[in-house]
Amino acid sequence: MEIFKKLRGMRDILPEEIERWKKIENVFIEVSELFGFKEIRIPILENKYLFERGIGSNTDVVMKEMYEFKDKKGREIALRPEATASVVRAYIENQIYNKEKITRFYYYGPMFRYDRPQKGRYRQFYQFGIEILGGKHPFFDGESVQILDIAFKRLNIENFIFLINSLGCKNCKGKYIEEIKKYFLANINVLCEECKIRTEKNPLRVLDCKNNSCRAILNKIPSILDFLCIECKVHFENFVNFLERFDINYKINPKLVRGLDYYTKTVFEVVPEKEDIAIAGGGRYDNLVKEIGGPDIPAVGFAVGIDRIVPLIKEKENKNNEIIYFISLGERAKIKGFEIMKKLVEERIKVEMDYEDRSLKEYLKIANKTGKRWCIILGDNEIDRGIIILKDMKEGFQEEIKEEEMIEKIKERIK
Predict the structure, then answer these.
(1) How far is CA 247 from CA 150, 241, 261, 308, in A?
(2) In whole angstroms, how far apart are CA 16 and each of 22, 96, 320, 381?
(3) Are residues 147 and 282 in the same domain?
(4) Percent helix, strand, coil in the chain (nearest 5)?
(5) Residue 353: which CATH number?
(6) What is the pLDDT of residues 6-62, one digit of tens each?
């Protein structure tokens, strides 16, 4: 019989790891909601042309990495490679801009890219993100960074830094692209084959290349900060002043461009010390709403790579210890045991029962193997006496507790 295995680049997230995932999710949700954000849930499948227009048809994401196919009616469909374009589509389609001046959304879920699997990078990966639509002031950019800074500190992620840059408006960006295209054409012989193509189609993408020969010539490349118009320069200065005022650890990196074409003005990434990959990134995208069919509305946001943060979260005590293992010896004990278990659940005490017929010795062996600290033991003798036995597997002692005192005593013991 064939044994099925997960596809390359996919993975199973097992219960022993899921607690760290939930901790990360909960922290980001809590911090975002404290800043007035509301959750939006968007489809995993979208029209593929939404991403072509939104992300950029010449980006690696669209050209090489999208999972795309035709549905039964022949429509061009794609699994979402990122969420911002989908959130903006929902914002336009539901005419949310007519209901409020500033919209704050957060989202969470899986994204898909047919990329080469490597450290911290999977073909199905998870992102938490926020989008602020309607605000052009640089403090909206600062708020995005502040949320990340607070959340990472709550997660005890150490020594991270924000790499920041400005790509300017359409005019600034256009002038800079013309200048670096000349620079790359003058050095075309040392560029990798892909960057030779990028030089013609999308020169900014050369700045993202990891090839050593391409990176070597970036040292003398002109800085985009020298091409900013007055408005974009003032915007960036005010953003930097915000970071300094609120003690955000940052460094200006004039070569930072991000991998998606919709960014304008502010861009940023978060990189932990001793790590060579960003764990979060974002920036401003003032033209995206208009480019995919909506009104002229500015926006800013970020996305966090949950897969990349999980290894940075320090292990805590096994959560399995909190679950009480209910041992019911015999049919009568199973019925009575379920009544007791229901009372415990109503009091928000975690409990699980194995309904198979086993010996007490076998039950206790299972409890040890699965890391349970607390066991309730119930048999005919205990039922007749109106008690339960609570056993502490870690300390190796047990006590008899009257049924009417059970809830109070158990809460006291396992606290």
Answers:
(1) 11, 10, 30, 24
(2) 11, 40, 8, 36
(3) yes
(4) 45, 20, 35
(5) 3.40.50.800
(6) 999 999 999 888 989 999 999 999 999 999 999 999 999 999 999 999 888 777 788
